[in-house]
Amino acid sequence: MPREPKSKAKRKLKTYQTSIGFYDQAVAAPSMKAALEAWGASSNLFHQGVAKETDDPDIVAATMASPGVVLRRPVGSNGPFTESAELPTDLADERKAKPKRKPKPSKRAAKTAKKPSRKIDDRQARKAAAAFEKEERRREAERRREEAARAKERARRDKAVAAAQAALDKAKREHEARAEEIEAERTAIDERAEAEQGRWDKQRRKLEEAVRRARE
């Protein structure tokens, strides 16, 4: 019974993969957000198209064996993911990388043995550097597209705000003009009403005087 929750928790994990710098990286995490946090990403790599969920059985098996641990392999390679992947370029000091001296038949034989390895290292270094530069160009292009999209959205919003403000200003001017007309009409009506009241008061007094005289 106590083991059931653990197996359920494992089933919730998914394997996510991305490429950052010189490495392909993979991690078993419960969500994309958790994967981004494990990678230390400052932006959403999934929205940018540089990260994805993978169902590759070898990658899934490696990450599920160490949930939450970021595994790596040299970018562009098909090797296994491990916790301590080597750089895809020969960045170590050549003197430190030299093996201990062993008996060798001759200097010419040693030079002949070293040349193929050096050529392979150079090809790998150039391949890794090219892959890195390609990735940097892709990310820079993505940043430019995002910035252009944000600028376009700002321009659209500014235009909409300007149009709404213009409509408000126009409606306000129309309202003020109509209010002035109504006020002028009200003033004229008040003047007419006052004149009518004065005329009626004068006529009423004359008629009341006539009625009084008629009664005498």
What do these coordinates show?
This protein has 216 residues and is of the alpha+beta class. Helices cover 65% and strands 10% of the residues. The protein has helices at residues 3-12, 32-39, 57-65, 94-97, 107-215; strands at residues 14-20, 23-29, 51-53, 71-74. The radius of gyration is 43 Å and the shape is rod-shaped.
What general form does the structure show?
Answer: rod-shaped
From the N-terminal CA to the C-terminal CA, the straight-line distance is 123 Å
Continuous helix count: 5
> What string, H for helix and E for strand, traces the elements in order?
HEEHEHEHH
Please report which band the strand proportion falls in: under 5%, 5-15%, 15-25%, 25-35%, 35-45% or over 45%: 5-15%
Helix content: 55-70%
Decide which structural class fits the backbone: alpha+beta
As laid out across the biggest beta sheet, the strand order is 3-1-2-4
* Unreliable segments of 5+ consecutive residues: 1-11, 90-95, 109-113
Q: What average pLDDT do the residues reach? A: 81
Number of strands: 4
Query: Over all CA atoms, what is the radius of gyration?
Result: 43 Å
Q: What's the main sheet like?
A: 4 strands, antiparallel
